[in-house]
């Protein structure tokens, strides 16, 4: 379990180094403890694995004031565990259900037991700023458009494939639009040089 905790901690610290999420951001975590153990999703749930993952991932996120949403499995329509205050902040609809290893998953149950004031919500309404998928449980529906893959040096936690994503605002405009501050300042300088 210590190896899983260390891998989770390494993954989140690298994630936050590559994508420093501001305080109040929403991070979504999805994971299959069965996959971490090298088994098919849903066949070998493990609260011990879930605890090890959360012990590695949660402290760096919570220390930075980042809200964490932990996705349950398809048996709960991928409902998520979040702090009540995060649900209020992001106008998320609370639902009545309690996750357990065979419906919702070990990771969601462990998160529910660990958070201070947890509630279950049906959806994040595509508002998560970034997230991690441990074992291919499909978190994409919870991410804001536009999701961008983050390539971490760690490709697995246990036996489970690790996929990370950040988001960025949509690019709008046409051929004359600029997308960086530097480019905007360069255009401003060009404009000033043309003035009489």
From TrEMBL:
InterPro entries: Antibiotic_NAT-like (IPR028345), DUF436 (IPR006340). Transmembrane segments: none annotated. Pfam families: DUF436 (PF04260). NCBIfam families: TIGR01440 family protein. Belongs to the UPF0340 family. This is UPF0340 protein CSW25_13725. It comes from Thermus scotoductus.
């Amino acid at each position: 379990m210590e190896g899983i905790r260390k891998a989770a901690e390494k993954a989140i610290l690298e994630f936050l180094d590559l994508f420093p999420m501001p305080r109040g951001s929403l991070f979504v975590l999805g994971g299959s403890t069965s996959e971490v153990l090298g088994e098919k999703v849903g066949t070998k749930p493990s609260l011990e694995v879930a605890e090890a993952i959360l012990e590695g991932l949660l402290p760096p996120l919570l220390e930075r004031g980042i809200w964490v949403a932990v996705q349950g499995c398809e048996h709960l329509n991928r409902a998520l565990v979040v702090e009540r205050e995060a649900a209020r902040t992001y106008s998320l609809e609370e639902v009545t259900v309690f996750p357990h290893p065979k419906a919702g998953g070990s990771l969601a149950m462990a998160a529910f037991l660990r958070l201070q004031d947890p509630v279950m919500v049906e959806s994040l309404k595509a508002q998560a700023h970034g997230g991690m998928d441990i074992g291919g449980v499909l978190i994409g529906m919870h991410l804001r458009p536009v999701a961008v893959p983050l390539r971490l040096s760690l490709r697995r936690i246990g036996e489970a494939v690790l996929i990370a994503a950040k988001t960025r605002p949509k690019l709008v405009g046409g051929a004359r639009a600029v997308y960086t501050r530097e480019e905007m300042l360069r255009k401003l300088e060009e404009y000033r040089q043309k003035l009489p």
